[in-house]
Amino acid sequence: MIIQDILEAMQRKHQSQLSQSCLNDDQHSDDHQMPEFQVFFNDQESNDFNTLFTSLPQDKQYFAAGVPGSFHHRLFPESSIHFVHTSLCLHWISKSPEVLQNKASPTWNKGRIHYTSAPDEVVEAYASQFAEDMENFLNARAKELVPEGMMVMILVGIPKGMPYSEIPMGMMCNGLSSSLMDMAKEGIIEESDVDSFNLPFYAASLEEMEEIVEKNGCFRIERMELTNPAAYLKGGPVDIPVWVTNVRAATEGMFAKHFGSEVMEEMFGRLTNKLVDIAELINSRCEVKSQLLTVLKRK
């Protein structure tokens, strides 16, 4: 659906510019043909691209191809792409900061699986890894985009200075940490496994993203704003079980690899119960502007 929206916008833009050109040059728009579009879908190598291709609309007005690989590195030939769109991906960092495993350091993230509710040193370690990954991402896309090519990025964000524990996703992370620690105390899993696991995602503020882009120097900022990620709820309550199911779909692979697939049902069940208990608090915070929209143009 996103691709369809993008292509329709491009077609309208092309038609508008063509009409203006024809008025100036006294030509007919019929003399010019709408360009053809090639869409490249990128995801990790382990993902099932066949499922993607079979779900594409039969009447699609573009050619489709899959490009497996990490977006933290180059994916396409130099100056070969005109438009890049990335949705809810870039908050995933390339790895958990290694300093979080140092038991002698203030960055040791004992009893938690994220920087939510963690000391400042842990938050700073995550922020540093995010900045490094974004620099690599911007450099790679700068090589691949044509001059004046555009990039639209949607990722998890947060208002400057707001603790991550005050937004629903932070409450989700705290619930996961709490569920795992409860299971460790009951002997279902090892506490050391909780201490050694850290979810590799970071929510940047608008100011952080702006600084990273300006420091990189390859792009002009056309638009940057924090938006409401729960606008689709239209004022209604969050369906906690559905929300947990969506989070599980995105994260279960990481959790199962570290803790074992046999405890996943128990872990996500406990998480659901914990979030149901604080549903009123979650719903009171779900309209916090914690989704970062960034539109860039290649210099």
Automatic annotation (TrEMBL):
<protein>
    <submittedName>
        <fullName>S-adenosylmethionine-dependent methyltransferase</fullName>
    </submittedName>
</protein>
<dbReference type="GO" id="GO:0008168">
    <property type="term" value="F:methyltransferase activity"/>
</dbReference>
<dbReference type="InterPro" id="IPR029063">
    <property type="entry name" value="SAM-dependent_MTases_sf"/>
</dbReference>
<dbReference type="Pfam" id="PF03492">
    <property type="entry name" value="Methyltransf_7"/>
</dbReference>
<dbReference type="GO" id="GO:0032259">
    <property type="term" value="P:methylation"/>
</dbReference>
<keyword id="KW-0489">Methyltransferase</keyword>
<keyword id="KW-0808">Transferase</keyword>
<dbReference type="InterPro" id="IPR005299">
    <property type="entry name" value="MeTrfase_7"/>
</dbReference>
